Each structure stands twice: as C-alpha cells, then as structure tokens.
Backbone:
C-alpha cells in the first residue's frame, strides 16, 4: 500500500502531531503493521491493518482489547505503578469515536508507539522467570474483569476442532500433498485422544476457562533495554480459554532451542532451563488461583502447543498454504516438522517437568 494512502488512514484518527513517515514494522504472520513517525515531540504510533479474514468481528475484537487494556491500566493505577504508558497498550479512537476505521473493506487501528523497547526471539532463564510472572499476573489481573469477552476466533485453541480441520484437509487433499506427509499425519493421530484431554475435562465440568492471551510467544512481549518485561502486545486473541494456552504457547517459542521454522532439526529441542525458570515465575503469581488439576496438567500444556501448532501448520500445508504467510514453497512443511521435533523433545521431558513442579509446590 502506498504511503500517501496510509497517511490518509492515519489522518482519520485522533492522533497528536504531524505525520512525517509511515513504514512497515515487525513480522507478524497475520496482521500488517506500520510505524507512524511524527514530527517533534508528539508520540509516534503503530498503525495496523487487522486481518478480517481471520478475525471476522473486528468490533468485538476491539471491544475486547479496550476492555482488557482499560482494566489493566486501572489496576496499575490503583497499585501506584510507575511508567504505566510503557506497561499497557494505548489505543486511539478514530474521529467517529470508534477504535477502528474501515477503509476500502479493510479495518485499521492505531495505538501509541512505545519507544526504546527490545523484542527478543530467544530468551534467557532470567527473562523467562519474569515473563512467567508477567503472564501469571496478566491472568490474575483479568480474573475480575467485569465484562464478558467474546471469542475473536471461534475455537481458536480447541484441540478437537484443530484436529477436525486437519482431518478435513486430509480428506480433501486439495493441493495433492498428502502422500509425502502421511507419516506425520499418522504420528499426530496416535496422540490425538490424549491431546484432546482439555476439552474432555471441560465437558466434565472439571476445567474452567479464564481470560488468556492465547498467543504468548516471545515476540509478543516488549522488553526494555535492560531486558525487563514491559508489556504483552498483540492482544487480538485475548479471550476465554484454558490457562494451558498461555503457559504452553509461551514455552513453544521460548523453550525451543531452534527456530519455529528451523530446517535443521538438530537445532530444535525443548530447553528445560527455560521451562524451569518460566514455571517458577508463573507459579509465583498464578499459584493463588490455579486449581490442582490445572497445575497437574502444566506438563501436558507444554506438549499441547507444539502438537497443536504442528496440526495447524500441517493442515495449512495440505490445503495449499491458505492461512499462514509463507516465504517459500514448503515453508509450512518445514514449520510442521520443526514443531513436531519440539513436541517429541518435550514429551521426553514430561517426567522431569512433573518432578520440578512438585518440588516447587513442596
Ligand atoms: C500466528 O500473527 P502471529 O505470528 O502473532 C497465529 C498463532 C500462531 C503463530 C505461529 C491468529 O500468530 O496462533 O501460534 O502465528 N495467530 C493466529 O507463529 O492464527
Ligand atoms: Mg505477533
């Protein structure tokens, strides 16, 4: 999109200052993001096109986000927290009072840019401990939000649903790619019942949904220059879910010694130092509200997310790459194999995870 059109969109929002430039920012797989720079002392902004093929109800999505950021801001204010503008996102209204602007069929939103932040793709045990505590707090702070949040993507982390999508992809074999990946489909099917345990426990009334972030990967956290966590970003998927989501999805990216799409599977292993540090931090802030069943299933959560992501990448590969942005022809297959390797490594470490958690609680 041309810069002059982007500037036109920006001009529809109640921002301060005069815009000097609008340039691409970040590497999300779903939304498209730009940095809006302004002249002089006015803040800079982040402009985003919300992918409404994936998030069909942008109004619900923005209502969720405004409720969540507002609730967190109030908690920080009440607690006398300093530097709040760097610890929670601040969305700006459009001139018509809505938190989004519809331009030629696309939805746009704008938030204040937080300067001097660092994103990390790899994390250290020290930062993981803090991140664990941050997510535990995030869930704890949202436990008493007075509004009912909507599901911005229906069945987003519903394992039964994700498997059903894979099974449909397999049945249709639209891109003719099934034969080469049948082995991986078989591996996933072997684990299917066990991995759908969360939904079963929920039906039995034993496991509740709480407000979760649902995309807790490392690049969705802003750190300051000293490596301290500032805030959680990318709130589109904040919705009611099992707490396994935030715990497991963070470890899926942070405890991977390789890349999400590593071609060299020897690079990919589940890092127990990160697991231990993150879990320690998480239990510190979340222990007070977690049930014994939730705690007992944290190692399951650590395997569930590499599993779910393998299922999702593989279904997309079989369908001919219609969901995730890809950079080369078999990118989704490479991603699937890397996530599967991570799953196997995490599975092997489950007894060690269980023992560590028991020690923490003793
Ligand atoms: C997507 O847009 P991004 O990269 O933050 C996806 C997550 C996946 C992730 C895998 C809405 O997140 O669920 O875990 O890619 N988000 C959506 O990298 O599908
Ligand atoms: Mg993201």
Residues:
């Amino acid at each position: 999109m041309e810069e002059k059109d982007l500037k036109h969109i920006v001009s529809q929002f109640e921002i301060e200052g005069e815009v000097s430039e609008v340039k691409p920012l970040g590497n999300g797989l779903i939304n498209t993001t730009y940095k809006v720079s302004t002249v002089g002392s006015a803040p800079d902004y982040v402009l985003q096109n919300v992918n409404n093929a994936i998030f069909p109800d942008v109004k619900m999505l923005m209502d969720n986000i405004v409720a969540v950021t507002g609730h967190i801001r109030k908690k920080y204010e009440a607690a006398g927290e300093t530097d709040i503008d760097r610890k929670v996102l601040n969305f700006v209204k459009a001139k018509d009072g809505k938190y989004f602007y519809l331009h030629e069929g696309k939805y746009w939103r704008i938030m204040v840019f937080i300067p001097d932040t660092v994103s990390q793709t790899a994390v250290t045990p020290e930062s993981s401990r803090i991140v664990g505590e941050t997510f535990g707090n995030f869930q704890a702070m949202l436990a008493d939000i007075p509004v009912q949040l909507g599901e911005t993507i229906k069945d987003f982390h519903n394992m039964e649903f994700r498997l059903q999508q894979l099974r449909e992809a397999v049945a249709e074999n639209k891109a003719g790619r099934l034969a080469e990946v049948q082995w991986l489909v078989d591996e996933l099917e072997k684990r299917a019942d066990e991995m759908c345990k969360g939904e079963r426990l929920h039906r039995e009334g034993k496991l509740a949904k709480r407000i979760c972030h649902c995309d807790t990967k490392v690049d969705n956290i802003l750190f300051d220059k000293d490596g301290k966590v500032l805030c959680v970003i990318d709130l589109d998927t904040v919705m009611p879910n099992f707490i396994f989501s935030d715990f497991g999805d963070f470890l899926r990216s942070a405890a991977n010694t390789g890349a999400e799409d590593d071609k060299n599977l020897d690079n990919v292993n589940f890092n127990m130092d990160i697991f231990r540090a993150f879990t320690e931090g998480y239990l510190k802030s979340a222990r007070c509200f977690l049930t014994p069943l939730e705690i007992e299933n944290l190692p399951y959560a650590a395997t569930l997310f590499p599993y779910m992501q393998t299922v999702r990448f593989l279904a997309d590969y079989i369908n001919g790459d219609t969901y995730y942005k890809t950079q080369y022809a078999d990118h989704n297959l490479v991603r699937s194999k890397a996530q599967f390797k991570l799953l196997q490594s995490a599975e092997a470490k489950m007894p060690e995870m269980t023992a560590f958690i028991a020690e923490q609680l003793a």
